[in-house]
Structures are given as structure tokens and as C-alpha cells.
Amino acid sequence: MKKTIGTFAVLISSLALGKDIPTIAVNGVGSISAKPDTMSIIANVETKNTNSQKAVEENNTIVKNAIELLKKDGLTDSNIKIENYNLNYRKDYNSKSDEMNYFVNNQIIITTKNLEKAGDLLGILNNSGVSNINNVNFFISNKKELENKAYKLAYTDAKNKAKLIAKMDDFKISPKYIDLGYSNPRPYPVFNMTRANSSDVPVTIPESISVTANINATFYMKK
């Protein structure tokens, strides 16, 4: 795992009058990266017809065909979900015609830890009749453990900055307030893939995904 600690600006509050204890406010960041171990693919199936029953049947046929092909490739029911079913009656936004049609939408969601099958699975979906592939997302399943490590690095960064400034005037620090922030790792996207006669779609699997935590911390400064 690769660990990095960012550099952030240090802001020192003005010393208060009377018995108020002076404080120092700092911003720290911690980042840690690891190899992704899970992949998800979301494919959209859209059919249209002037007859609602035919639109539904056509959609069901495509979804069923895709699932059968995916299972032949080694996936199981635990890897496949069908979600976000929708039926509506409207004009075709991509056509100049005013004809009304029934539109049926379904999403096939695949989750697997076999990242090397990404291109193969995309090829199967591509050739099964799905309308498009909305995105491919590589991620880390046990993200909480990485989040905790990133928070520790962020706190260490903030504390070291506060110590550095406080030491200039021989102050010692103790924590007063800590505000935690977190940055979700970005997914690896593939958008609007058109169908093609290919059994394998080239996909670049990211070598690592970073998890970043930010901390805004305020410390008391005492002699």
C-alpha cells in the first residue's frame, strides 16, 4: 500500500484577551492507496413499442438472454441483479416523429471479484442486445479499513503542523476540536458503449485506488 501525507496551510488564531487560551487551527490530509478487488458493471436495456406488452416482452427477452450468457461464462445469481424497472408512454426524444411509444427500461448490475473478466463480461453484454453500458466501477470492498488508516494519517499531518508552529513560541498543544472529512475514490467509467461483434472489450484495470481523508483541527496552545 502506498501512503502519502499532503501539505496544507496552517492558520493561527489571534491570541484572545484575558484568560482565554490561544488556539491554532490546521488542515491536514491523509491518503492511502490499494489495489481494487471488486468490479461492478451497470448495463441498461431499453425497448420501445407502440404496444406495451410487446415492449415488455422484448425487454424481458434481452435481459433473459444476457443473464443466460453471463451464467455460461461463470457468473451466478449472487453476481447479477436486475433493478430500476420502468415503463412509460412518451415520444422518442431522439426522433423528430411525434409518435407515442411505450418505453421499458431495466438495468443489469453485475458485481464480481474476478477483475480479469472485465473485458469478457463487457463483450457478452455488448453482444446480448443491451442498449448501452452505463459504467464500469473498480473499487475496494473493505473500504472502511482504508478510511480509518487515512484518518490516522490526516490527524498526524494536522498535529505535526500545529506542533511546528506552536514550538516557535515554546507552546505545547492539546486537541480542542476536530472536524472529519472524506473523499470517495473515483470510479473507473466506461460510458455508452455501442453493440459490436466482439467477444472481448479491452479494459484497463486501475493499478490502485486512493482513499483520502481530510481533517480540520483546532488545538489549544499552552506554555
Write structural notes for this entry.
By secondary structure, the chain is of the alpha+beta class. It folds into two domains: 2-35 and 142-186 and 210-222, 2-Layer Sandwich (Translation Initiation Factor IF3); 38-139, Alpha-Beta Plaits, CATH 3.30.70. 26% of the residues lie in helices and 40% in strands. The protein is built from three helices and nine strands, in the order E-E-E-E-H-E-E-H-E-H-E-E. The protein has helices at residues 52-72, 118-128, 143-167; strands at residues 2-5, 10-12, 23-34, 38-49, 80-91, 100-112, 132-139, 172-183, 209-222. The strands form two sheets. Strands 1, 2, 3, 8 and 9 form a five-stranded antiparallel beta sheet that branches. A four-stranded antiparallel beta sheet has the order 5-6-4-7.
Characteristics:
223 residues; alpha+beta; Translation Initiation Factor IF3; Alpha-Beta Plaits; 5-stranded antiparallel β-sheet; 3 helices; 9 strands
* Estimated share of beta-strand residues: 35-45%
What's the mean pLDDT score? 85
Q: What is the radius of gyration computed over CA atoms, rounded to a whole number of angstroms?
A: 26 Å
Count of discrete domains:
2
Per CATH, the superfamily of the largest domain is Protein of unknown function (DUF541), domain 2
Q: What's the CATH architecture name of the largest domain?
A: 2-Layer Sandwich
Principal-axes shape call: elongated
Assembly context of the chains: single chain
Please, how many helices? 3
Query: Per CATH, what is the topology of the largest domain?
Result: Alpha-Beta Plaits
Q: Kindly state the number of beta strands.
A: 9
Biggest β-sheet description: 5 strands, antiparallel
- The termini sit apart by 39 Å
Q: What is the CATH class name of the largest domain?
A: Alpha Beta
Order of secondary-structure elements: EEEEHEEHEHEE
Helix content: 25-40%
Helix/strand-derived class? Answer: alpha+beta
Low-pLDDT residue intervals, each spanning 5 or more residues: 5-18, 190-197
